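Handout, page 2. Input:
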Amino acid sequence: MAERIIRVAEPGQLADSVNVWGDVGSAGRYLIPRNTSLPELISYAFGPRTISDDQTRLDWSKLRVEVSVSEYSQETGMEEVRTFRYRFNEPLPDGMRNFELKNNQVVALQVKRRPSFVDYVRVVAPVLSSIATGFLIIERLR
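Output:
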């Protein structure tokens, strides 16, 4: 969740308060100038955080970003969510560049990537090892 409160708006300037959660460089509650766009807010939060694993080589074309903006509607009593999905090597989706943020919205970013061969090996290898160990133990006990 949010780690801190960040003031981007200047004192005396009309501002909105927006929460930024998820895979960003700096999650927190942001006090931003009115009419701030969604890409501007993401840049204030130091952009999408990429997966930093020394053992995995990243193919930037396979990384996807999902941005969800939610707000509670007093009229309907329901949470309304708008979601934008894009890849790092593609332009921003329609409507995201000019999407204006409002007070008390929550912006959540999630960076996703396709699993690589190494990821599958990391899941399958322990299972196979456990099964083989179980067979060896049963054989020894006979």
